[in-house]
Amino acid sequence: MSRRLLPRFPGFRRPEFRRPTLRGAAGGLRARLVVAFLLVAALAALTTAGLTFRSARTAILKHTQDTAIDSLRSQVNSQVPDYTFPLTSSAQMDLSRRLAAAGGAQRWIIHLRYQGGPMMPAADTNRTIPQGLQQKVRSGIPAFQRMDVDGSPWLAIGLPVTFKDTNQDSGLEVYAQMPLREDEANVQALVKAAQSGALPAVALAAVPALIAARGVLRPVRELRRASRKIAAGELDTRLRVTGRDELADLSRTFNDMAEALEENVAELRRMEANSRRFAADVSHELRTPLAAMTAVVDVLDEDAASLDPDTAYAVRLISEETGKLARMVEDLMEISRFDAGAAALHLDEVDVSETVRKTLQARGWQEKVAADLPEGVRARLDPRRIDVVVANLVGNALKHGGEPVSVTVRAEKRDTGERLLIEIADRGAGIDPEVLPHVFDRFFKADSARARSEGSGLGLAITLENVRLHDGTVRAANAPGGGAVFTVDLPLRRGGGEEA
Q1: 55, 369, 395, 422: least buried by Cβ within 10 Å?
Q2: Could you report how far apart the first and last alpha carbons of the chain are, in Å?
Q3: What's the whole-model pTM score?
Q4: Pairing verdict, β 143-149 and 473-478
Q5: What is the pLDDT of residues 439-489, one digit of tens each?
Q6: Where along the chain do the CATH 3.30.450.20 domains lie?
Q7: Does domain 247-340 have CATH number 3.30.160.340?
Q8: What is the DSSP track for 438-491?
């Protein structure tokens, strides 16, 4: 599979990818899926344990109370027929003792009331039979009720006794109270068992949670990997589509997007190549006639003083415009070399301050520019290209800024190494904040009304390319006190020799 790289468009920056941090991983989709899965598992386990506990507790207590009621009824049916009604007090006490002795397994406490009389034996104030229970029994209804005695659960049972033959009320009421400590202990053991079972269930749920998260995130990881390849220029990257779910639809959409992007970039690449070839061809073809025109204009310009005023003006105008055209053609040729990758550095050990000083002298700017050029700042640079950089920035400051223009050269030490800074500042109105991001764009002019200005709109773009060749940067900003500041930031390479 061929590796198709993104075209080198002006201002294009390749994306920088960062490794996921621990905080990012903790807040990632995998962690959230696992946490959600565990929460659902924990909720399901707790709900199941709660329902199971409720059902088991109800079953335990119901079994206890049913057993107690049946046992009490059985004892009453077997003991009461031995007594003659109406019952005397001694008979009531004897029946109470016999029923209490018969309920040894249940450990119940027996109380009797006969024909609305007092309880025999008298009930403990802490274990008084609930009034609601007594009213039901007086109405001839067997009843039971759970009660709390000194923080412990108890069960109270009441049975009205009727004559077996006539089914008439005998006036005897039998009450039994029994502790539910064993049942409560069984319920607490059930709670602990449910808790002990829920924790391993939640822990075991982490395994299917990780498996499920992996299955869900695999297409997402493939999509991320493919997106990075697309961003890196591998436009023929495609995802393998499996299934018919939403993630499969997302993969198909990504493939459609990648295909459209590949076609569009291929078309842009073709158009850019054609535009570069056109600019280079036009510039090359214009050089020969321009050379001839320049030679003729130079001759005419020498004799302009002997011509009549109108003809002299026309000759000087032609000479000026021919010079502009020649500079524009040279700029186009230069930018074409950058686009074609044919621009090369010829590094040499130079005195930076002396190089900048020669640039100012060659253009007669010594009186217009305040230069701060310390001695002893040496670096390996391409003198011709640094001359172009300084000339373009100073010329731009003189033309569009305000005097005085200052040029400062200094070396600066940083953690990444020594840097060479060349700063050009003016005292003009500064650069419009909306214009700042575009000052290095090709053919960009802040004022659209200056369609016929002397500049070609390529000077700052050529400056940017020359600085990039030196592995440096150039920045444009507005000074706090007014005016524009352009800063060239280059690595301060040292050492002799020349290289291409």
Answers
A1: 55
A2: 34
A3: 0.48
A4: unpaired
A5: 888 877 665 444 444 556 788 888 999 999 899 999 999 988 888 999 999
A6: 29-232
A7: no
A8: GTTSTT--S-TT-TT-S--S-HHHHHHHHHHHTT-EEEEEE-TTSSEEEEEEEE
